[in-house]
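Cross-posted from the bioinformatics board.
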Amino acid sequence: MSQSREARRAATILVSPAVLLLLALNIFPIIYAVYISLHHWSLSSPNPPRFAGLFNYQELWQYDDRFMNALGVSAVFIVLAVGIELLLGFALAFVFNAKLKGLETLRKLSLLPVMAMPLVVGLVWFYMLNENFGVTNWFLTLFGFERLPFLTDGTLAMLSIVIADIWQWTPFVTLVIFAALQSLPEYVFEAARMDGLTEREIFWRITLPLLRPAILVVCVIRAIDAFRMIELVFVMTKGGPGGNTEVLPWYIYTKGFLSLDLGYAAAMAVVMIVVVTVVAQVFVRKIAAPE
Amino acid sequence: MATYSLTTPNSIRATGALRYLIAAIFVGFCLFPFYVVISTSLKIESDIFAWPPRWIFRPIWDNYEAALFVFGGSGVLPFLINSIIVTCVSTILAVGLGAMVSYGLTRFRVFAGHHIFFFILSTRFAPPVAFVVPLYLMLRQVGLLDTHIGLILIYTSMNLSLVVWIIRGFFESIPIEIEEAARIDGYTHLQVFTKVALPLVKPGMITTSILSAIMAWNEFLIATIMTQSNASTLPVYLGGFSGSMGLEWGPYMAVGAMAVLPIMIFTLVLQKHLVRGLTFGAVR
């Protein structure tokens, strides 16, 4: 199929604006970030940026305990938040998977947190988790427990941002798994039943394998989005106490825009982009659109 | 469907009542923080800090008045206006450019078209925090820091992947015969796009508009770094007080309510398309 000159012109007009915009605001910044990361580049210093080679990267890997801590904190946050969201969301999808009056309305209502402004999510959980007047502690005392210093204790602070994240994203996991459940072909289950499989066997050997793609999709999307999360930390803990909730995005933000050390922040940004790109490429090519 | 429960394992299989109970508890958990935002925004200060929490109180509107015109010097109004401008313009641009590129890639053979498509999709994963350093320096270089245009351009680029994914499906579902007929009637390719194809994908455009608008409306990190005051949006206003808000919960929650409630309505409307929109169409 050869295209006419007019068709080629139309295609160019249609495709190029978006591509140019993405080249300018997506590809170029990546190259630029690499360039910046190879310099001593500080906004607070009067000196112009000075070439530094791999100095920033060497600093990162060899001497910066805060960076290693941030990687660890990010990993813990992702594993905890996404893990619990997947388990809860998965189970709830089965709860909603029945033709019962009113259940659909409940399912729709449960989706409201997903689109709420993350900053407000952080704000309201910050308020609700307050040690002195927070409603979470009121519930705890109601059941005979002690009040807990949710935001000032190291372990509890991590738990606090995990709770806020779970609140926002569990409904999303439920929605995806539920949609996948609904799309499973009924005849497979009928056949399995005729073959005499028990319900338990059907779940492990048929339902679960059929749900695998959806579970993978939601797992990767949630993990990558949890990796970029900064709003909850910004509002609720500011990375504290003692670096216990200092996820990588928060550390990059403080280095770049509070310490104004752009070169160093850019080096961390490059590391982050590499990690995300590897995961995303595998995802987009193998899972989202296998061809 | 009588065989419905077959997809449910014994262990999780629940009677109807148990389903309702679990679902209701979950929904309660999901809705409770919204209740807290709204109720706190209607409380006087002594009720806000009360222990035990006051469930019954006399609602007042003062916090909203303070939030709109007074709180933080100028009140939230200028920020609200910035948010509306940036959200609207970036949404129109993202949906417009996204529809164009989707149509171009589905209907024409474009050099490296497949790669362009995957590239656009993969930008969905770009972590904003990794881009703020170069973007900040770039905007500074061209004098677009603290301007609406700067934010609008960045948000447009961020929303393109979402738009392309959803709209592409809509374009593919248009029977090619309709477009060929229009060609025979003497339409140029671009006229077929604007006069035939675009009107047919209106539902897709509406869905993506709402999704893009919500993303732009909610975005915090880019906005807080790229703007100082002139173009600062609502989340920047909220973030600005998070360190020093000790006593200002009332107006603060009022702003929170204004930021969140309009979105809630759209979320309920969008339901059907959310899965596809948020998972890259990998789950339909």
